[in-house]
């Protein structure tokens, strides 16, 4: 981790007399704060963003929201999963497009659905190491236009054609082309090592933990209902309106669609047919969107006159079930100390399987080497403004949305500590503790 945590130092401001004296803040080190977080509206792929490119979305928002001088940013990091080949370092292209100086380094990371989580923690590491004071971290995913490749045999032939020196060599290569060579290779949300799609994994996970179709549908309905309520009440303040060239301004997420249990029950299994339980309705949908956060050393943020939202801390392990106890123990906290939970909802079956694992002594003892279960987050504290099932899940951008949502919920609800947890392909996971900045 980027830095050690303290459970004894008091909050570095007056007030908060009713809150815990435990804190992520610590004297004598570079405390890291979240200053601002923004995102574009998350849209279903193939809708209003369809004619754009990933860097068009990635460059939006943060500079105007914070009014930070361009030269005050030391580094820019973005996460993405399915890369546009023309802008492989999308962080750099987005930075230049947003007007940041070309003297500011920028790099792109990929870690499946926790790519922007990795972008944030990479930035935190740079700050903790004293290399930077201000980092813009974010993520973007653009599913409306994913790269589609020729078959490997066709690619090999075309590369050979490019090197052929004589007409005879060219004709020979052209003559070797067969109709099957024209079959394209489509990108898939699948594991290379297992060839299994995430939907199949979610179906297996749900079956292993006994998560029923009814439970999954009810959880998905909860997500959409809460997201619609939050949207209507203006709670999703991280959403920055985005002007689509030649079209209207997009100002809100368009995938939030509360339905009914009866309607959801009519859908057929999407992956394991005919007996699977994962459907289009209880899965997150393909989404276009971008997010960004400004993270700084506390000292620099205060010196520049910013009012931080939260302190940050993190850990990387396997899946939310594993991440939650590890990040809590390192901070000297328990589940009871957490006021706000924001877990990534890739699939209803996936998140509910994790919740059942967290509530199982047998799982803790058999797989985690723990004496007792972690415990389940209280649902009255859990994803109260909707989640990835309803708001959308641009793979590379969800992590920053989760962190910003926790910070905003802590402010709104008057809580002190929040917990982000997210899973990712390959059995990876991320946990982040967030503490409301004392006012």
TrEMBL record:
Stated name of the protein: Trifunctional enzyme subunit beta, mitochondrial
Catalytic center residues: 113, 393, 423
Function: Mitochondrial trifunctional enzyme catalyzes the last three of the four reactions of the mitochondrial beta-oxidation pathway. The mitochondrial beta-oxidation pathway is the major energy-producing process in tissues and is performed through four consecutive reactions breaking down fatty acids into acetyl-CoA. Among the enzymes involved in this pathway, the trifunctional enzyme exhibits specificity for long-chain fatty acids.
Catalytic activity: tetradecanoyl-CoA + acetyl-CoA = 3-oxohexadecanoyl-CoA + CoA; decanoyl-CoA + acetyl-CoA = 3-oxododecanoyl-CoA + CoA; an acyl-CoA + acetyl-CoA = a 3-oxoacyl-CoA + CoA; dodecanoyl-CoA + acetyl-CoA = 3-oxotetradecanoyl-CoA + CoA
Segments of this protein annotated with the region Disordered: 1-22
Xref: Pfam families: Thiolase_C, Thiolase_N
GO cellular component, one term: endoplasmic reticulum
EC main group: transferase
Ranges of biased composition (kind: Polar residues): 1-18
Known partners and oligomeric status: Heterotetramer of 2 alpha/HADHA and 2 beta/HADHB subunits; forms the mitochondrial trifunctional enzyme. Also purified as higher order heterooligomers including a 4 alpha/HADHA and 4 beta/HADHB heterooligomer which physiological significance remains unclear. The mitochondrial trifunctional enzyme interacts with MTLN. Interacts with RSAD2/viperin.
BP terms from Gene Ontology: fatty acid beta-oxidation
GO MF, one annotated term: acetyl-CoA C-acyltransferase activity
Entries under InterPro entries matching the protein: Thiolase (IPR002155), Thiolase-like (IPR016039), Thiolase_acyl_enz_int_AS (IPR020615), Thiolase_AS (IPR020610), Thiolase_C (IPR020617), Thiolase_CS (IPR020613), Thiolase_N (IPR020616)
Domain Thiolase N-terminal span(s) in chain numbering: 32-299
Thiolase C-terminal domain mapped to chain residues: 313-435
Annotated metabolic or biological route of this protein: Lipid metabolism; fatty acid beta-oxidation
Main subcellular localisation: endoplasmic reticulum
Compartments where found: Endoplasmic reticulum; Mitochondrion inner membrane; Mitochondrion outer membrane
UniProt keyword list: Acetylation, Acyltransferase, Endoplasmic reticulum, Fatty acid metabolism, Lipid metabolism, Membrane, Mitochondrion, Mitochondrion inner membrane, Mitochondrion outer membrane, Transferase, Transit peptide
EC number(s) on file: 2.3.1.155, 2.3.1.16
Homology family: Belongs to the thiolase-like superfamily. Thiolase family.
């Amino acid at each position: 981790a980027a830095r050690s945590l303290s459970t004894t130092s008091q909050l570095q401001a007056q007030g908060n007399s009713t809150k815990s004296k435990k804190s992520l803040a610590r004297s004598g080190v570079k405390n890291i704060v979240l200053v601002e977080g923004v995102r574009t509206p998350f849209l279903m792929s193939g809708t209003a963003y369809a004619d754009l490119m990933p860097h068009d979305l990635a460059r939006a928002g943060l500079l105007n929201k914070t009014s930070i001088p361009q030269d005050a940013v030391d580094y820019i990091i973005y996460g993405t999963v399915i890369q546009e080949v023309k802008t492989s370092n999308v962080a750099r292209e987005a930075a230049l497009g947003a007007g940041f100086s070309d003297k500011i380094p920028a790099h792109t990371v990929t870690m499946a659905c926790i790519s922007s989580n990795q972008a944030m923690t990479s930035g935190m590491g740079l700050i903790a190491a004293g290399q930077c004071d201000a980092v813009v971290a974010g993520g973007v995913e653009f599913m409306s236009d994913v790269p589609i490749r020729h078959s490997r045999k066709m690619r090999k032939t075309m590369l050979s054609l490019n090197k052929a020196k004589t007409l005879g060599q060219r004709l020979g290569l052209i003559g070797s082309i067969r109709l099957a060579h024209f079959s394209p290779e489509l990108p898939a949300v699948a594991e290379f090592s297992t060839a299994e799609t995430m939907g199949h994994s979610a179906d297996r996970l749900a079956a292993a933990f006994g998560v029923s179709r009814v439970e999954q549908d009810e959880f998905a309905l909860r997500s959409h209902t809460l997201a619609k309520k939050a949207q209507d009440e203006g709670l999703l303040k991280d959403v920055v309106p985005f002007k689509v060239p030649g079209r209207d301004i997009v100002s809100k997420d368009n995938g939030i669609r509360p339905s009914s249990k009866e309607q959801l029950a009519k859908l057929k299994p999407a992956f394991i047919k005919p007996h699977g339980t994962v459907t289009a309705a209880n899965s997150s949908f393909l989404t276009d969107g971008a997010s960004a956060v400004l993270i700084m050393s506390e000292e620099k943020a205060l010196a520049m006159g910013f009012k931080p939202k939260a302190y940050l801390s993190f850990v990387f392990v396997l899946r939310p079930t594993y991440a939650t106890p590890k990040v809590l123990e390192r901070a000297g906290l328990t589940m009871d100390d957490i006021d706000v939970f924001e877990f990534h909802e890739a699939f209803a079956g996936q998140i509910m399987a994790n919740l059942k694992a967290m509530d199982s002594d047998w799982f803790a003892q058999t797989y985690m080497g723990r004496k007792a279960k972690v415990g389940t987050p209280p649902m009255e504290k859990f994803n109260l403004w909707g989640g990835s099932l309803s708001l959308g899940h641009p793979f590379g951008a969800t992590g920053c949305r989760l962190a910003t949502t926790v910070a905003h919920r802590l402010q709104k609800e008057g809580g002190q500590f929040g917990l982000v947890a997210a899973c990712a392909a390959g059995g990876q996971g991320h946990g982040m503790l967030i503490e409301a900045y004392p006012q």
